[in-house]
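Long-time lurker, finally posting.

We've been working with Peroxidase (Triticum aestivum) and I want a structural starting point before designing mutants. I don't trust myself to interpret raw outputs, so I'm hoping someone here can both generate the structure tokens and explain anything notable. Sequence follows.
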Amino acid sequence: MACRAATMVALLLAAVAATCARAQLHDKFYSESCPSVEDVVRKEMVRALSLAPSLAGPLLRMHFHDCFVRVCCICMHQYLPYTVVRYGLTTVNMQGCDGSVLLDSANKTAEKDAQPNQTLRGFGFVERVKAAVEKACPDTVSCADILALIARDAVWLSKGPFWTVPLGRRDGSVSISNETDALPPPTSNFTVLTQLFAAVNLDAKDLVVLSAGHTIGTSHCFSFSDRLYNFTGLENPSDIDPSLEPQYMMRLKSKCASLNDNTTLVEMDPGSFKTFDTDYFKLVSKRRGLFHSDGALLTDPFTRAYVQRHATGAFMDEFFADFAASMIKMGNANPLTGSQGEIRKKCNVVNH
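Top reply, 14 upvotes:
Generated this for you. Predicted structure of Peroxidase:
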């Protein structure tokens, strides 16, 4: 019986490994079927960001939230529900970067309805980009690929790095709100962060590099106000996070008046929140990272050293190359390819 179980585990591991390796994305995927796709997407991005430059951060975040959900090769059951657990392993229906964050649900049970995604912005804009792409190349380009291109251009048009986006993803048809438990919360400590990143094949370097996406965009007070008023559960003005730099904490308190502030927006990188640069690392190194997860980067020797190196601002090209590499790695988090999934006509609904 033990031998049989061991054999089944070995077969399971082999099957999972084969599945994890099946994604074959490449930058020339649409060279014949839709050679204008990147131009079409960039034209819409330039138009949108010229009118609303603050949209760049949310669009980058949307791709991040799409890739972290519905993907894991072998992972712990508590991080991804709706799984089958056998022999101490968890296998899941692996569909990362599949556009599932864009799907609507009549009964409000889709990913976009979950608490981590309720502050996402730009869904209407994604639909406009999709309509423009459909006009140029009907039934050809997936919403998942459009999200990847939008995220790249959001960074580049914010004076950040440019990278070649591997393409060929297809769209999934499942979107479940509870599966957003796989997203790294802003309240995470370093241990939780590394576990959740490892679940999508990202390591500590990817963690510290991709966290710097916080250099553009804003956040609602409720994502970090517990650091100001309720750090240990006392719910009073003296119950503060001691790891947060005092002057920065007072500045945040002047903007976020209480734990009940659900509307105020705060710049994640004060002073340059519309520009993709290394100022994020300067802030974190001074204990002025907005979230628990930002401050957590100082609790590990490797990530702390990376933060301190790039806080100097002397290695911009190196950081830009690292960010591009980590974005490509994240975007390759086992997407649907080949004959899997579909190419949605509209990004918010599956085809009928």
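Before you design anything, note these points.
The longest strand covers residues 84-86.
The two ends are 46 Å apart (CA to CA).
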